[in-house]
Amino acid sequence: MKVARLPDGSPEIFHTLQGEGPSTGAPAVFLRLSRCNLHCHWCDTPYTWNFEKTPWPHEDGVKFSKIEQSLESTPAEVATALSSYQCPRIVITGGEPLLQQSALEQLIPLIEEVQFVEIETNGTQTPSRRLDSLITAYNVSPKLANSRMDESVRIKEESMGFFARSSKAIFKFVVQSNEDLGEIQDLENRFSIPRERIFLMPEGKNFKELNKKTKALSSTCISEGYRLSSRLHVQLWGDERAK
């Protein structure tokens, strides 16, 4: 498995609180996988994909060493690390975790005492039937035009349709301004996504920026009937890794 690597050389596996979506505030062990098929301009984990000699732009203007920022681990090794926390809730994030479905199919049955497995995904990859049977919840975050990618890259009909039909999935849209609302409503109608399963989440990497945008977005959620997602981890720890 391609796993994100922390500065001390260890895999990015950590025990914290889920900061986004319907599970906000729940203790969980996170596994951050490396690699992504998308490259959002504002991505808060560019070290999982924006490697040296790649062509993709990012607002930070930094390129990362693939060797320094990722490592290879077996599903058994990762399962041992996850099980050591004795936490029943696992969140698998990235990057894009569903690029490594075969490894995940091997990993999840090996995790001891796990009761809840949540996948954070960009919604462009359709889970296999086998993997879907192992997952408790999908936290789907389709990317909008504010990510600065063409729609043909970030919105995939088959995958979006799968998640819209799945009772396991919620949709979490990263909002920069109220100008994004029309695009969100278009996707809601296009894929028949129930409004009660849609969360709006402000984009921001520090408390001050996030607090300002959250207050502005709350009015939209109240008037339009969407759910508001905070970014609890940013409010508590800023952009510190493994938190």
Q: What count of helical segments does DSSP give?
A: 9
How many E strands?
Answer: 10
In the predicted model, the low-confidence regions spanning at least 5 consecutive residues are none
Q: Kindly report the average pLDDT value.
A: 96
Order of helices and strands: EEEHEHEHEHEHHEHEHEH
Beginning-to-end CA distance, first to last residue: 22 Å
Let me know the largest β-sheet: 8 strands, mixed
Structural category:
alpha/beta
Rg over CA atoms? 17 Å
Fraction of residues in helix: 25-40%
Oligomer state equals: single chain
**Overall shape:** globular
Strand numbers in spatial order across the main sheet? 2-3-5-6-7-8-9-10
The fraction of residues assigned to DSSP E strands is 15-25%
Description:
This protein is α/β, with parallel strands linked by helices and 243 residues long. It has nine helices and ten strands. The protein has helices at 66-69, 75-83, 101-107, 129-134, 151-154, 157-165, 181-190, 207-224, 232-237, and strands spanning 2-4, 13-17, 27-32, 70-72, 89-93, 116-121, 137-140, 169-175, 198-202, 227-228. Helix 2 crosses helix 3. 39% of the residues are buried.
